[in-house]
Amino acid sequence: MSSSPATGTILSGQVALVTGGSRGIGAAISKALAEQGAKVAVNFASNAEKAKEVVDAIRSGDREAEAYGFDVSDEAQVAEGIKKITQELGAPSILVNNAGIADDGLLVRTSADAWQKTIDVNLSSCFYCSKAVAKGMMKARAGRIINMSSVIGETGNGGQAAYAASKAGIFGLTKSLAKELGSRGITVNAVTPGYIDTEMTAYFNDEQRAAMLGQIPLGRLGAVEDIAQTVVFLSSPGASYITGQVLGVNGGMYM
Ligand code: NAP
Q: Rounded to whole angstroms, how far apart are CA atoms 147 and 163?
């Protein structure tokens, strides 16, 4: 008897790759896609133990998942990782470009290396992974690419120039790929979470947290499930006519 019954079937027969699937939002997305029947490749950078926990949780619900460690900011590692996933689980029909880092700092204190790393992990990764799955999706004449941006890409934020630039860059990539791949039945969309309760926002102190809540009409931080269910929707047949869009999931903090 499974410990967490997973009865959804809207994604049966699909293979999903979730980058940064080992923690936070990515872990919730991995579980939610698996609950709807997708086989999930849970990518991680270094935290193999956390990725294994996600895989074990999915398997305990009688769904399929496997962990794959590779650095999404390295094109060769991405190509190798996706080749392995294709051999073991099948060609990804859903790609969720979720992996991301925030290395915040004021402009004058941000090194060129920190800038470049943020761009590489948050933005170039979306290009590398999309490129690596596109051939299989084009052959299948179907596919879903969902890029995790951020409300900060829409608003900008002092002390987050590199992060905001990397997340805003995702909009141009998303819209261009949506135009380029639409005729092959592939949709490409971006999701912009507001402030979500994860390790990435855990460092806020009480004062910062109160200031943050003051900007959110719904009066709470987002939960990882809020983002995961949006990704399930964008992966589902019901979203087949949505492409090139930037979907805010932010409690109304940016409209
Ligand atoms: P998180 O808890 O810090 O988790 C980050 C994930 O990305 C981990 O699974 C990590 O793997 C993986 N990762 C980092 N660098 C990687 C690399 N080079 N290659 C492969 N995987 C890598 O982050 P989160 O808060 O869930 O955020 C997920 C996404 O949502 C990010 O793109 C973030 O910018 C975006 N977002 C978050 C918020 C928020 O409030 N939390 C708001 C807006 C947007 P390891 O476990 O191996 O380190």
A: 15
